[in-house]
Each structure stands twice: as structure tokens, then as C-alpha cells.
Design a protein that fits this description.
The complex is a heterodimer. Chain A is 47% helix and 2% strand. Chain A is mainly α. The relative contact order of chain A is 0.12. Chain B is of the alpha/beta class. In chain B, the strands form twelve sheets. Chain B has a seven-stranded mixed β-sheet with strand order 6-5-17-16-15-7-8, sandwiched between helices. Chain B has a four-stranded parallel β-sheet with strand order 12-11-10-13. A four-stranded mixed β-sheet of chain B has the order 22-24-23-29. Classes of the chains: A mainly alpha, B alpha/beta. β1 (104-106) of chain A pairs antiparallel with β1 (30-32) of chain B, so a sheet runs across the interface.
Chain lengths: 171, 934
């Protein structure tokens, strides 16, 4: 039989603190899940897969700017004024458009704010979208397929002979 | 539970806790879609630039506003602008914070009693104003409109508004209204305005009290002009002043004259040039006869200068082919201010400086600006209770007017005082109704900083708060009075104004370039000899002796006090004293010794109408018997009004100083006013041939392939104005830490101005920033490789890597690295001012200048798109962009033809602490003063 002593009490307290912080931590980590839900259930399988739309049909800035950009709702409505208008998700889209509200998509790929990353530079260097984003034609729900850690970036820079000067990416 | 299992369990828990806290640094953000595609050319993540005009002071310098995702993040000087041509001063840089200021008035406010206010709607506020106007008109009361200097399109609208609402427009209120210059020009030449002085065309400049580099009419414009003038061989500049100003510190030669004695020197100079000859004109007999005929010795006696100084100045002046004299500032703000200005005008006339060097065709549009006399007329009417409604716009008379002004008693007697403004000030707090104005970055306007020069003010975003621009506000009141919608928005009126004044393409050009200049036929002037002689005859033959004098000087940082609320202007120190926060009295070392005061001892300062306790700051070079207090340190200064010019007399006689025995801690950021012979700015006296060593290194040589970034700073052009410092703060999101941290030596400036005083009172300014050493002492001591040398010659600091050992800072001989002792907070909406290209640094991280690496990255990106190398001058750092003097040149040292390479090869070039072998990439160019020039 173990007699409870002051040391045991302290240990129990520490354990409780640990359980609590770990719980909070795990809860926060869930925010980083690789495939978050989205306000509109957009199927890349249909658009990129079946219809074989090129990526920059919607992500129009990928080759021109730092950010690839989400498609302006006007682009979506270009087709969906006529197509599949009866579906719930399209009705949602139409409501956003008509009320003049932007859709706030949940980010799947996030870089810290001290990192400079330009889609343009990578596209112009001939990096295929799928090299980082995976084959979205097969993804019912977009999920993060690469870690976006520094080691992951550097490994590719090394293979391709791109600059490995810190100041190229670190702001 | 077994001990092993317990440990395993604890290990797993703590591991996940640590991992989780690492991973949750930033929660995944949102990714927002456009609704409509953006305009062609607008790209997410790329900056857009819009031309506009700075409204922080009356000068009207051109701006390029950098906007990121709809938020203005930086103001740059607009190259080619007719006033400022690419420069922007410290106040202009800081004026961006006015937009985001947390204390901005966000909606109309009604004053319900002493210190009590209530928010009201625009609807109610406008009704209140319209009703009060109707009521006061019915009761036969007079209503007034009083504003700061108003020009261009808004001035026209104000006139229309006054007609529609039955108001009288009072002359504009400006503390620095240059009333003596205007009065003199009106007397002599019939032009009641401040002319444009074309310094760049003169070969000898004599400035008398005019603080060209700080606040005089258009400081950026004059700084630019001085830099251009200095390019010419043989240009000389002598500055005469009673106190010690930044302008005086930068002149080739500074003459400290007894306060009020300037006319004696000028009269002497006028006699010397009165004979005409060359480009000069012969002075009328009448004027010459009225001149006091004093010898150089007598003038010296009267002015406190030496006879040799008087003779040399007169001689230099007479020898010059295109001499120009400019008098103003504190030298025109004393009892003999009118004589100073009149004599300067006569010299300009006699030397033929009019109309080429003194240009009335491009006069500075100060005609609408009134004087204290005009304010007295208005105040008298208010005091008699005649005033119904008083509009107060963009001015703070309660702070700036003399203590004795009847305006203070008159204001409460006005039935309804309506004040327009953005940040709370003395006048806004006392007004019955406060209507919030939009920032100039949220408004349309076309200002006319000079006659025939228009500059566009355009909104770059929707108003942040429930505010209106002054134009729209006046139109709203007008439509309320008329009971119908206004015929046109204020923007349309601005467009119509531009078209009417500047031809049918006026508006188009103004929209595209941001500025316009109409034709300016040269304007001659005829001299009214009678009026001139009358002023001269009244001149006192000798100077009366007087005791110690307190000079109220304009402030580089806050102008007349209007920029006090902007945090950067307290954080960045005054360049002469390096004091950042707090008030102080500058006294000469001699006076300090006499009154037993040491630096920062508290003194009780007493003068008629003034009783203050202030810390004293020893100012080398300041004459004895003269104390200097910045005007913005005094609320309601006890100044008198000059009966002839109507301007304030910015001198308080009979000052007594008594030590209180206390010491006041205010932050003085410079370690020492002296170089201690270290040759930071090399002097032949410091030259030392002994310390030359062979370079031995354990480290591999750096190899630069395409670029090696470097900077050249011309100390002859640098005048310490600190515009670069403000630009750096805003470009790089440098945190503002406040007085407490400054006192601990924890200021965060990446770029600082260090003043170094010589024994003879001469001062040199050294801008000190990271020197990007080729052999950098910081890099070798970093244990985590956060400080490293990049292939383009930068000492990069990887913030995400830094663990805060501070070894680098200890090892840096230039002391340019700054440590984050706190997690700095940016209260909303100031967080929107952040430059997204530069990350916010966390607590425990070392930070420093990296030659605006974000701009380098951008320029390289652009060049790469076009498959070429970055061109020289294609981009520059924030400090160089802002520099009104054009003292900073940035570029690629590997390109032998680049501007910076050429300057680095100049015979004047040197680097700080060369003996250390750090081989900095910042090349300084010794000033001409040091080269033994004029």
C-alpha cells in the first residue's frame, strides 16, 4: 500500500497540469488538420477531374502574383448561373454572390508570416501545381499533402539548384 | 502503476503539450475570394501606388501612397513633384499614423458640459448646425469660418459655403504665417505674399533666421534646392541667427547674432551693395540716405559679431555674382522683425535677385493667411457676444494663441462653436460640436501649395470611421440649408476646379500625375522707395542692451505643435539634442556653469507671464544669454503681438533661471556629444597612420556573383532632419517603445542620427545604421546561424532562428542591433499599418536594418520576370527614398557604373572605424566643411 505523502500530492498536481496543457494543445492542434471543412463543398474532382479545367482557370493569379488566389465569385457564376442551379451548394454560392459577401474558405496550406513565398516564381520555374498540392483531381475534399516545413522546401531547392540563401524565403 | 509506465505517460503528455504549443503559433487563416475580378493589373499581394498630397503642414509635398490589399502602409515622396520632387520629411512620413491613430475622433461629438461629451449622429449634428445658422441669421448675429491655411479647390468651396450660409470668412490662422515677410513685400513691392526663393540658382546664400531645413514655408523643397546648389563649385552659405537651429548647424558658416540685432548687419550689407553694378540696381537716394552709416566695428558692437565676421560676410556677399538673402523665422519674429524683412527685401532688390531668385510668380499662396491682429478683430467680436456660429477647421488657436488673447474668453460666448478635426486637441475639446474630418488619404481635394501649382489629394480607401472630408462636410451643411441635395459631390467640384483653372485636360493630368503646373510668367517688382525709407528712418541707431532672452523656436518634429499627437514624432529624437520624450530648455554651457546647472538638472524658468519648471539641456554652440524652448512645449505661450506686422514676437525678455535642486530624467539617446577623437567623421586631426594591419582571417572569403548591395551617404548633404529615420520606422514596422524603455537605453531605431559637436560649436550629423560589414563581427558569434552573410553582401538576420543570446549586439562596434525586450503590441487599427512584407519580431529576438531586403527581393522578382538584372536606381531603400537632401544612394557595388560605386570611389569616401577591418558596405562622404571649403 502506498501512503500518500506531500511528494505524491505534488506529482499528482504536476500530472494534472500536464494533462490539462496537453488537452488544450491537442485541441488547438486540431485546428491544423490537413483537410478542413469548407463553407461550400467544392468538388475539385468534378472541376479539375471530370471537366479537366486548368488550375489557373480559377486560381488566376498563380503565374502572375505571389498568391494564386481563390476564384472571384463572378468566375463561378459564369457557369453556375445556368448549370446545376438546383443543388444546395450552388444555391449557397448564389446567395453569397447576390448578397455581395465573399466566401471565406478555410486555408489548407498556410505559411508563417515571416516567410516570403511567391507562386509566380515557382510556376515560372516550371514547378507543376501537383508537386506541392498533390493530384487534386482525386481529392473529394482538399487535404494538405506536403508538410510545408523548411526541410521540405530546402530539399526541393537543393534538387533543383534553386537558391538556398535564407533571405530568399525568410523575410 | 509502474515507475516506467508513469514516466512514459508523463513523457507522452509533456511531449504533446510542447508539440501543440509549437504548432499552434498561428491558427489557419481564411482565404477570401473576390466577388468580382479585380481591375486589370491589380494583383493580390502586390503593392499599388497612388499619387496624393501631404497635408501634415502647409507645404503641400507630393506623395506616392503605397497600398497593400486596400490599406495604405507607407507614404513615399513623389518624384518630379513641383514642390518636393521625391523627398518627404519626418512629419510627412509620420502623418500616416494620423490615419490609424487609435484616438481619432470616430463620429460627431456634442459637448454637454465641462469635460462631458456625447456621441451624436451626423443627421442630428447637421440639423444642429443648420438650425443654429438660421437662428443666428434671424437674430442678426455674425457667424465666422476660421481655418488653417486653405488653398485651391477647398478655398473656393469655403467661399461658396460662406456666401450660402451667410458667414464671414476670417483670414486663415497659421502660427507661422510669415507676417513680417508678407508685410515687407507688401510695403516694398505691393505683393502681400511669401515669394519662392530659388536657392538652386544662387551662388551665395545668406539666410537670416529662416529655418529652411525645419519649418520655413516648404522645408523639403528648400532642402532639395540646397542640395542642388551645393553641387555647383564655389557655392557658399552663411546663416545668421540668434539661437541655435538645425539649419544653423548645417550652414557653411553660422553667425550668432544678438537677438533683435539682425537689421544692423543687413543695413551694413545693403550699404555695401547699394552702388548697383553687375546685375544689381542702384538704390534710390532716399533709401540710401535713410540707412544708418555705421562702420564694421560699430555694426560688430551692435550685433555681437566680430568686426572681421561682419567684413568677411559683406565681402563674400559683394563678391558673389548671384547672391540671395532670405530672412524669416525667428529673426523676423521680434520687435525689429519688420526691419529685418524690409532690409532683406531691399538687398534682394538691389542685388537684382528679383525676379529670378525671388520669384513672386510662384509665390507660396500665403495671401489668405491672417495675422494675430486679424485674430484680435475676430476675438473682439466674439467677446462682445456678437458671434452666432463659429466654424473652426484644422487649426488649434486655443493652444497656439498668446495667453492674453481675448479669443479664450470669447469662445464660450459664441452660441455654437463647431470644430472640424481628426485628433482631439485643446480647441476641439472646448468646442460645442466636434465634426470628425476624414484623413487626407480618405478625401478628395486639389490644393495649391504655390501659385499656379496644383496637387491632388485623393482617397486610397473608404473612411475608417464615420467621418467626412471637409469638402463633403461643407456640401452637406449647404444642402441642409438649401433643403435640397447638393448639385455635385466634392470630387466633381475638385474636377471642375482643375478644369477651370488649368484647362480642359487639367483634371485628367491631375488624376494621372498627381500634380499640375500652370504657366508662370516672370513677375518684376517696382520698389516703393518712400515706404522703404520710412521704415529705415524709424530704425534705432544702436541696440539697447537687454538681459537673457528666451526664444520660442519652431520644432522640426511637430512644426507649430500640430503634429504632437503622432507617436513616431516623440519616439524619434530631436536631432540636435537627441532628446526623444519630454520637454526641455536648451541653454548654453556657459550659462549652465554660471547658474550651477548640470545637464538635466531641473530649473525654475521665470519670465513675464511664464513660470515653468523644466530640465535643462546643454546645447553646445548656443550663445550665452539665449535660452531656447520649442514652441510646442508651451500651451498658450505668453507672447506679444508685433503692432506693425501682426505676427507674434517669439522672444520672452527678462528670463531668470533658478536651479530647483532636482534632476529630471528625460531620454537623451546620444551617448556623447563628442567623437572623442575616434574619427567617426574623420578630421585631419584624427588621422592616424599607425593602425594599419594585414588582414588575417580564419573564415573563407565571401563570394559575390551578381549583386553586392552597398550604400553611400553624403555627409555634406545630410542635415540630420531625420526623415530617413521615420521612413525606416514605418517601412520596417519598428516598434514604438516609449519613454520608459528609452531611459533604459532600449530604443529600437534601426537607423539613428548621431550629432557630433566640435569644440568650436560646429556639428556634424552621422546617420548610423547597420553597416552590412563584409567581415561582420556579429556573424561569427551567433551560435545558431541567425546572423549570416548572404551571397549579396547583406548581414541577414533570420528572426525565426534567433534565440536572443545578444552576442551579436555585444560584438557590433556600431551598436546598430536592437533587442526585443517585449512582445510589442499594436492596438487596432494601427496593426493595419503594418508592412506585410516585413514580419513582426517576437520578444527575445534581435533585429536590425537589412538594407530593406524586402525591396531588394521585390526588385529582383520584377527583374527576373523580364529576364534581366536589377538596374541601377530602379529601386532604393526606404531611407534613401525619403531623404529630402538626396544624401543617400543605394545600389550594386559590383556594377562599376552604379551611382554607389562611383561615390564609393570618391576622394571624399571613407568608412566608419576602418581600422577594425570590418569593411562596411556603407560608404560615407566627408562634408566640404571638413575639406576646408567655404
Amino acid at each position: 500500500v502506498i501512503r500518500p505523502t506531500a511528494a505524491h500530492g505534488l506529482l499528482a498536481f504536476l500530472a494534472a497540469v500536464l494533462v490539462l496543457t496537453a488537452g488544450v494543445g491537442i485541441a488547438r492542434l486540431r485546428g491544423l488538420e490537413p483537410a478542413p471543412g469548407q463553407p461550400i463543398d467544392f468538388p475539385h474532382t468534378v472541376h479539375a477531374g471530370t471537366l479537366a479545367l486548368p488550375c489557373d482557370f480559377c486560381h488566376a493569379f498563380a503565374a502572375r502574383a505571389r498568391h494564386a488566389g481563390a476564384p472571384p465569385l463572378e468566375t463561378c457564376m459564369g457557369c453556375h448561373r445556368a448549370i446545376a442551379t438546383e443543388r444546395e451548394e450552388i444555391r449557397k454560392l448564389t446567395r453569397y454572390y447576390e448578397e455581395g459577401r465573399p466566401v471565406e474558405w478555410n486555408r489548407v496550406y498556410t505559411l508563417p508570416d515571416f516567410i516570403y513565398f511567391s507562386h509566380k516564381r515557382h510556376v515560372k520555374a516550371g514547378v507543376e501545381c501537383s508537386e506541392c498540392h498533390g493530384d487534386v483531381r482525386e481529392m473529394e475534399k482538399i487535404r494538405r499533402v506536403s508538410s510545408l516545413t523548411m526541410g521540405w522546401c530546402v530539399s526541393c531547392h537543393r534538387v533543383r539548384g534553386a537558391s538556398r540563401d535564407c533571405a530568399v524565403c525568410h523575410k | 502503476m509502474k515507475r516506467r509506465d508513469f514516466l512514459r505517460f508523463v513523457g507522452m503528455l509533456s511531449g504533446s503539450a510542447v508539440l501543440a504549443s509549437c504548432g499552434s503559433r498561428k491558427r489557419p487563416g481564411r482565404f477570401v475570394s473576390y466577388i468580382l475580378p479585380p481591375d486589370e493589373g491589380a494583383l493580390p499581394g502586390e503593392a499599388a501606388f497612388f499619387p496624393s498630397t501631404c497635408t501634415e503642414c502647409p507645404a503641400g509635398c507630393g506623395l506616392l501612397v503605397r497600398v497593400r490589399e486596400g490599406w495604405p502602409v507607407k507614404l513615399e515622396g513623389a518624384p518630379g513633384h513641383p514642390v518636393s520632387d521625391g523627398g518627404l520629411c519626418i512629419r510627412g512620413q509620420a502623418s500616416l499614423t494620423r490615419l490609424y491613430h487609435p484616438e481619432r475622433i470616430r463620429n460627431p461629438v456634442l459637448r454637454t458640459g465641462e469635460g462631458r461629451y456625447r456621441d451624436i449622429s451626423w443627421e442630428n449634428a447637421l440639423s444642429l448646425v443648420a438650425d443654429a445658422l438660421a437662428e443666428s441669421r434671424a437674430a442678426g448675429r455674425r457667424s465666422f469660418y476660421l481655418a488653417g491655411r486653405t488653398t485651391g479647390s477647398l478655398s473656393e468651396l469655403v467661399d461658396a459655403f460662406c456666401r450660402a450660409a451667410g458667414l464671414e470668412r476670417a483670414p486663415d490662422f497659421e502660427v507661422y504665417g510669415h507676417s513680417a515677410i508678407k508685410e515687407a513685400c507688401a510695403l516694398l513691392f505691393g505683393e502681400r505674399d511669401v515669394p519662392l526663393y530659388r536657392i538652386e540658382d544662387a551662388d551665395f546664400l545668406l539666410t537670416v533666421g529662416a529655418d529652411m531645413l525645419e519649418t520655413f514655408v516648404s522645408p523639403v523643397s528648400y532642402t532639395r534646392a540646397l542640395s542642388r546648389a551645393k553641387e555647383r563649385e564655389g557655392f557658399g552659405w552663411v546663416h545668421v541667427e540668434p539661437h541655435f537651429s538645425l539649419t544653423g548647424a548645417n550652414a557653411d558658416r553660422r553667425l550668432a547674432v544678438l537677438p533683435g540685432a539682425e537689421p544692423h548687419l543687413l543695413a551694413h550689407l545693403l550699404r555695401e551693395v547699394s552702388g548697383g553694378g553687375g546685375r544689381g540696381r542702384r538704390l534710390p537716394r532716399e533709401v540710401v540716405d535713410a540707412l544708418p552709416g555705421l562702420s564694421a566695428e560699430q555694426v560688430a558692437e551692435n550685433t555681437g559679431l566680430s568686426a572681421q565676421e561682419v567684413r568677411e560676410t559683406a565681402d563674400r556677399f559683394a563678391r558673389a555674382k548671384r547672391p540671395l538673402v532670405v530672412a524669416g523665422g525667428v529673426s523676423a519674429a521680434h520687435a525689429a522683425g519688420l526691419e529685418t524683412a524690409v532690409l532683406a527685401g531691399l538687398i534682394q532688390w538691389a542685388t537684382g535677385a528679383i525676379p529670378d531668385l525671388v520669384d513672386f510668380s510662384r509665390a507660396e499662396n500665403y495671401r489668405t493667411v491672417g495675422t494675430l491682429r486679424d485674430m484680435a478683430t475676430l476675438s473682439a467680436s466674439m467677446e462682445r457676444g456678437e458671434a452666432g456660429v463659429l466654424f473652426l477647421s484644422r487649426c488649434n488657436p486655443l493652444f497656439a494663441l498668446p495667453k492674453e488673447s481675448p479669443f479664450r474668453d470669447g469662445l464660450p460666448k459664441v452660441r455654437l462653436s463647431v470644430a472640424f478635426g481628426d485628433l482631439p486637441d485643446e480647441t476641439l475639446r472646448a468646442a460645442n460640436l466636434v465634426l470628425p474630418l476624414s484623413h487626407s488619404l480618405e478625401s478628395w481635394d486639389a490644393v495649391e501649395p504655390r501659385r499656379g501649382v496644383a496637387s491632388l489629394v485623393q482617397p486610397v480607401r473608404e473612411p475608417l470611421h464615420d467621418t467626412l472630408s471637409e469638402g463633403d462636410l461643407l456640401l452637406a451643411v449647404m444642402s441642409r440649408i438649401a433643403g435640397k441635395e447638393p448639385a455635385a459631390s466634392y470630387r466633381d467640384r475638385v474636377a471642375a476646379f482643375a478644369q477651370e483653372r488649368y484647362g480642359k485636360d487639367g483634371w485628367k493630368t491631375l488624376r494621372e500625375t498627381g500634380h499640375l503646373a500652370g504657366p508662370a510668367p516672370k513677375k518684376g517688382a517696382s520698389l516703393n522707395a518712400g515706404a522703404a525709407a520710412a521704415v529705415l528712418r524709424a530704425m534705432r541707431p544702436a541696440r539697447e542692451a537687454s538681459g537673457p532672452v528666451l526664444v520660442l523656436a519652431p520644432s522640426l518634429r511637430t512644426f507649430d505643435g500640430r503634429s504632437r499627437g503622432l507617436p513616431h514624432l516623440s519616439e524619434i529624437p530631436d536631432p540636435l539634442t537627441t532628446v526623444s520624450y519630454g520637454r526641455w530648455l536648451s541653454i548654453s554651457p556657459g550659462d549652465a556653469a554660471r547658474s550651477g546647472l548640470r545637464e538635466l538638472d531641473e530649473a525654475a524658468v521665470a519670465a513675464p507671464g511664464l513660470s515653468e519648471t523644466l530640465p535643462v539641456k546643454l546645447q553646445p554652440g548656443l550663445p550665452e544669454g539665449v535660452f531656447v524652448l520649442h514652441r510646442d512645449f508651451l500651451d498658450a505661450p505668453p507672447v506679444a503681438t508685433d503692432g506693425r506686422t501682426g505676427g507674434p514676437i517669439e522672444y520672452l525678455p527678462g528670463v531668470a533661471l533658478v536651479a530647483t535642486g532636482r534632476r529630471i530624467r528625460i531620454p537623451v539617446l546620444s551617448g556623447s556629444p563628442s567623437q572623442h577623437g575616434r574619427g567617426l567623421i574623420p578630421d585631419p586631426a584624427h588621422r592616424d597612420g599607425k593602425h594599419r594591419h594585414e588582414r588575417v582571417s580564419l573564415y573563407p572569403e565571401h563570394d559575390h556573383k551578381e549583386y553586392r548591395w552597398a550604400m553611400a551617404i553624403d555627409l555634406d548633404r545630410c542635415n540630420g532632419c531625420s526623415a530617413c529615420v521615420a521612413a525606416c520606422y514605418i517601412e520596417n514596422n519598428v516598434p514604438i517603445v516609449g519613454a520608459k524603455d528609452h531611459l533604459r537605453g532600449r530604443e529600437m531605431s534601426w537607423l539613428r542620427i548621431e550629432p557630433f559637436y566640435e569644440e568650436n560649436g560646429q556639428v556634424d550629423f552621422l546617420p548610423m545604421l547597420c553597416q552590412q560589414c563584409h567581415y561582420a563581427p556579429c556573424e561569427t558569434v551567433c551560435p545558431v546561424f541567425a546572423a549570416y552573410h548572404n551571397p549579396e553582401g547583406l548581414n541577414v538576420q533570420v528572426y525565426a532562428r534567433c534565440v536572443g543570446t545578444r552576442y551579436c549586439s555585444n560584438n557590433c562596434p556600431y551598436k546598430v542591433r536592437r533587442f526585443n525586450w517585449w512582445q510589442h503590441r499594436w492596438p487596432a487599427p494601427t496593426d493595419r499599418m503594418h508592412n506585410p512584407d516585413v514580419p513582426a519580431r517576437d520578444v527575445g529576438v534581435m533585429e536590425k536594418c537589412t538594407f530593406c531586403v524586402q525591396r531588394i527581393r521585390q526588385a529582383k522578382d520584377r527583374a527576373k520576370d523580364e529576364s534581366r538584372a536589377v538596374r541601377d536606381g530602379e529601386f532604393t531603400t526606404a531611407c534613401a527614398q525619403s531623404c529630402p537632401a538626396g544624401a543617400i544612394v543605394f545600389g550594386n557595388l559590383l556594377d562599376p557604373e552604379s551611382g554607389v560605386s562611383r561615390l564609393a570611389r570618391s576622394a571624399r569616401a571613407y568608412r566608419v572605424f576602418e581600422i577594425l577591418g570590418t569593411e562596411p558596405s556603407v560608404h560615407y562622404l566627408r562634408g566640404r566643411k571638413r575639406e576646408g571649403g567655404t
